[in-house]
């Protein structure tokens, strides 16, 4: 009786600990919530498109274009997921951001399940704690974009792998879950097609544990195919154009890298970044972080020779090796989710240390990992997403709304005209959404948009019809990513129409109030 009771009490304590770690993850992800919410072109495009799917029944078979105007497209499933969130939140970007943070925080349960079953409950708790405070996961939590859900794709893959390893009662469904995780990844981002290769390796390593029957075989084939159905239908409609283009790019050794960077250097830099952004605050390109990576990998390889679960975790950590032969991309999110394997591997090594004479050192090391991540979060949070994820950082929603409010306040109910220098240049999408969702409901009218609307891009702003309003504004988005030539060109052009009367900095935005030079100017509003 007593052993059974003790086991029940121990299990209850573990459950409570996991929920406390989840609450900690939620708290961390909502630190500087408003200041850290990002809203740029991709987010505005996705908001418009996902709402149009449900409100206008504008069904999509292909998703957003892949980076680099390559003629390739991601899957549209992300839009079908995003639309109901915007509908539920009545278009509120903050609401959608909050949901994404909660989804990411819930990964604590997946991490604990994987690490706790492959190793011990203690390792599971430490791995979950590391995930809760991870700087990298904080970035993905506030990133409302298609790659960010890739974290859950990897969790699904390894939950399936654990089911096979432990010969769970439901293990026959594990291959379907693992392949579905890879298929979902490919839907989210075309480059994540490489997820299938580590899944095949995991299935090979665990092949003796796989139990097939008719239903599980159908699920393993049908579920991934169903998730990828839009690709097949879209490609049939487009004459398999993307397939031909993808083959051509792979054959040519396609890469998107920094000038002068080699593919090997790029992947090693991204690998080191996993240690920097998840474990210890060390210089990202220094010898110290490299030494840490080498020592940890060497230890994991040593233990992998005797322990099969460690081999599974190494497949996770080094899954990026499956992408490397097919080209490369400097985007931060190509490695999305891989660092979760590193966190589990780190917790496992600390568990090994805990059983030695110097076991007490495990606890200061845990505190160091927590401090390093929380320091990185506190230093970056108020600037939102890092530039490795967004080439135009500092597009904080709180600043954008402040810019809009100040324009209306200074206008005092009169009509006004806006010229904005931003990215993409002269594309109305970001501000069209902000005025539609926030500015007009609060203030009652639209401004005139000096540069008009570019066809083919979502959103509409009223262009000037004749003459000009007396009140004008020149707005410049955050400088990084903006060519100085177009900034100067817009200033030069606007100086023809108006003169500056006041200027303010709102976050990283430049807000400039101007008076029209035309003596016949008016205060009309768009009809």
Automatic annotation (TrEMBL):
It holds the Pfam family PMT_2. Keywords: Membrane, Transmembrane, Transmembrane helix. The keyword Transmembrane applies. The keyword Ribosomal protein does not apply. Residues 74-226 form the Glycosyltransferase RgtA/B/C/D-like domain. The chain crosses the membrane at residues 14-32, 77-100, 112-134, 140-165, 177-205, 217-234, 280-301, 310-326, 332-351, 358-377. InterPro entries: RgtA/B/C-like. It comes from the Bacteria. This is Glycosyltransferase RgtA/B/C/D-like domain-containing protein.
């Amino acid at each position: 009786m007593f052993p059974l009771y003790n086991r029940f009490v121990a299990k209850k304590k573990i459950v409570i600990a996991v929920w406390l770690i989840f609450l900690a993850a939620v708290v961390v992800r909502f630190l500087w919530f408003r200041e850290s919410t990002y809203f740029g072109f991709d987010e505005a495009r996705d908001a418009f498109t996902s709402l149009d799917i449900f409100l206008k029944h504008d069904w999509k078979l292909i998703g957003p274009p892949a980076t680099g105007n390559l003629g390739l497209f991601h899957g549209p499933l992300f839009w079908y997921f995003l639309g109901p969130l915007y509908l539920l939140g009545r278009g509120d970007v903050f609401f959608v951001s909050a949901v994404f943070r909660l989804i990411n925080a819930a990964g604590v349960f997946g991490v604990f399940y994987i690490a706790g079953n492959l190793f011990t409950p203690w390792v599971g708790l430490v791995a979950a704690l590391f995930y809760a405070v991870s700087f990298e996961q904080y970035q993905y939590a506030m990133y409302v974009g298609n790659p960010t859900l890739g974290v859950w794709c990897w969790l699904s893959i390894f939950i399936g792998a654990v089911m096979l390893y432990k010969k769970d009662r439901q293990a026959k469904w594990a291959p379907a879950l693992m392949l579905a995780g890879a298929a979902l990844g490919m839907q989210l981002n075309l480059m994540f097609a490489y997820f299938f290769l580590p899944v095949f390796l995991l299935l090979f390593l665990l092949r003796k544990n796989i139990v097939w029957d008719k239903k599980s075989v159908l699920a393993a084939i049908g579920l991934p195919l169903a998730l990828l159905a839009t690709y097949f239908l879209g490609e049939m409609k487009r004459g398999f154009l993307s397939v031909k283009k993808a083959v051509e790019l792979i054959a040519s050794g396609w890469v998107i890298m920094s000038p002068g960077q080699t593919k090997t250097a790029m992947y090693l830099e991204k690998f080191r970044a996993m240690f920097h952004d998840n474990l210890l605050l060390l210089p990202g390109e220094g010898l110290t972080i490299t030494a840490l990576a080498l020592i940890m990998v060497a230890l994991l390889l040593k233990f992998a020779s005797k322990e099969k679960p460690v081999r599974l975790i190494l497949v996770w950590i080094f899954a990026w090796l499956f992408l490397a032969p097919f080209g490369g991309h400097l985007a931060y999110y190509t490695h999305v989710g891989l660092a979760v394997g590193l966190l589990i591997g780190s917790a496992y090594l600390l568990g090994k240390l805990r059983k030695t004479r110097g076991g007490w050192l495990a606890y200061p090391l845990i505190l160091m990992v927590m401090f390093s991540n929380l320091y990185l979060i506190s230093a970056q949070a108020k600037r939102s997403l890092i530039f490795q994820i967004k080439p135009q950082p500092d597009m904080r929603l709180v600043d954008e709304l402040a810019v809009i409010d100040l324009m209306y306040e200074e206008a005092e109910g009169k009509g006004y005209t806006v010229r904005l220098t931003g990215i993409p240049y002269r594309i109305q999408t970001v501000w069209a959404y902000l005025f539609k969702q926030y500015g007009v409901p609060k203030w009652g009218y639209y401004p005139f948009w000096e540069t008009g609307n570019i066809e083919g891009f979502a959103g509409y702003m009223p262009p000037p019809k004749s003459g000009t309003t007396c009140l004008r504004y020149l707005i410049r988005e955050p400088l990084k990513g903006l060519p100085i030539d177009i900034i100067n060109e817009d200033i030069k052009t606007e100086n023809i129409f108006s003169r500056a009367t006041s200027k303010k900095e709102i976050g990283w935005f430049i807000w400039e109030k101007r008076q029209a030079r035309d003596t016949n100017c008016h205060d009309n509003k768009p009809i």
